[in-house]
Amino acid sequence: MxxxxxxxxxxxxxxxxxxxxxxxxxxxxxxxxxxxxxxEALVLQATLKKQGVTCELFxxxxxxxxxIPALMKKVRxxxxxxxxxxxxxxxxxxxxxxxxxxxxxxxxxAVNFKxxxxxxxxxxxxxxxxxxxxxxxxxxxxxxxxxxxYLLAKKALANFTIMAARALGPTVRVNGVCPGYVLPHSTSxxxxxxxxxxxxxxxxxxxxxxxxxxxxxxxxxxxVTGQIMYIDGGKHVL
Length: 238
Known about the structure:
This protein is α/β, with parallel strands linked by helices. The chain is 45% helix and 16% strand. The chain has helices at residues 14-25, 38-50, 68-78, 102-127, 148-168, 187-197, 208-220; strands spanning 5-8, 29-34, 55-59, 82-87, 130-135, 172-179, 228-231. It has a 7-stranded parallel β-sheet, sandwiched between helices. Helix 4 links the parallel strand 4 (82-87) and strand 5. The longest helix is centred in the middle third of the chain and has 26 residues, at 102-127. The chain starts with a strand and ends in a 7-residue tail after the last strand. The model has no long low-confidence stretch (mean pLDDT 95).
């Protein structure tokens, strides 16, 4: 079987790192993108190399859209066998509509929507075939306003996923995965997640391992494109 590689943006920490480890366990070489998390990226790189795969690091500020084609060319030079792009990097800032200023709006859309848009374009132009998986959010099915611009950008990314699937077929497949509440940032977040779990159909959010399994699965399905998969214990149906 030919060796494969995957490019994961924001891959040094949290779900990104979990996906890197999971893909490596399944024999993929890893192109690991990071911005400010160099220390974590280096530690993860060492761990993945011990698993017997190649891991190359790529540092880039995704707000620098003009630099994305050059980033993708570097990935191709190092890993011409890259078959998948996982648009995982995002920023999460709390601000309701009336408290959202232009700077916050621009940050949210630059990283959470504009960067995946142009990363997908650059991937298609550079590699010509493969698949893209956009990491979305279960709350795109809702109208929560506590993180107004973040959620708006993720909703836009979900619509982009479907449109790009049509635009890039048949050579590039584009799908999305919507995690539920995983890896809380704080104790208060964990308490909040437990409260929400009481109301969702399956009474429990998915574990990180279930998210990574879904991303790998959908990236390997040759006849699946334009799909949005919710891995959230059913929260999106509320």
